[in-house]
Amino acid sequence: MTTSELWSQAEAERYDGEENEMSSAAVLGPTVDFLAELAGDGRALEFAVGTGRVGVPLRGRGVPVAGIEFSEHMVAVLRRKTDEETLPVVIGDMATAAVPGEFALVYLVYNTISNLLTQDEQVECFRNAARHLRPGGRFVIELGVPPLRLLPPGQVAVPFDVSAGHLGFDTFDLAEQMLVSHHLTRDGADGRYRRGASRHRYAWPAELDLMARIAGLTLERRVADWDGSPFTQESTKHISVWRRPV
Ligand SMILES: C[S@@+](CC[C@H](N)C(=O)[O-])C[C@H]1O[C@@H](n2cnc3c(N)ncnc32)[C@H](O)[C@@H]1O
Fold it and tell me: CATH second-level architecture of 9-146+204-243?
């Protein structure tokens, strides 16, 4: 059984509305371009496909896409966009669930590897990706660099958004390599704030490279964003591509 928290019906119903920036053409255009090029004429498998924010437009580009997703509520929202024949989804844990066939590309975006709360499960997720890849196939992860340089000694929280409609901050347990993302979101016209929190196991790129190596994959490319900009010591996130040997 996974340590991932189950995304509720209420979260699923809000997801596409709240993720305006992440669902914008400015974000999705380069994301889909990047993934479509790697898929080539092969099939793609999205771990934690959610409501199909990325999978649906990638399918629209002609790439056959399948998904694994833990929350039936998220899949119910996806099903309003596309049917099972067009984008099949297995309900299950991305660390263990199996989808028939071989894939040119497995991808796991929007920090979602961190929803697996133990190192063992994150390693299993890499192994599961490798099991689904054809020789020469690629596993892509999008993940934030842990923002620990922003955490002064003695403090436990780092704010990441302070705007009129939303207050967001992360709190850290450095000994356990865990963070909790806290959100206070203005809900409706009466000015009240809704409180939400999600737990994550953060990891640096180097730890992911080791997980990939355990799974038999080799780092091919690491960039700072979907536009291919170089990854540097100032980068706040990375897109990493590991390859199964031919
Ligand atoms: C931030 S959303 C990302 C959804 C989609 N990939 C996107 O980019 O919009 C995280 C998703 O991961 C799913 N999830 C979390 N843990 C999971 C697991 N162990 N196996 C499969 N899906 C999981 C959640 O249900 C949720 O749909």
Answer: 3-Layer(aba) Sandwich (3.40)
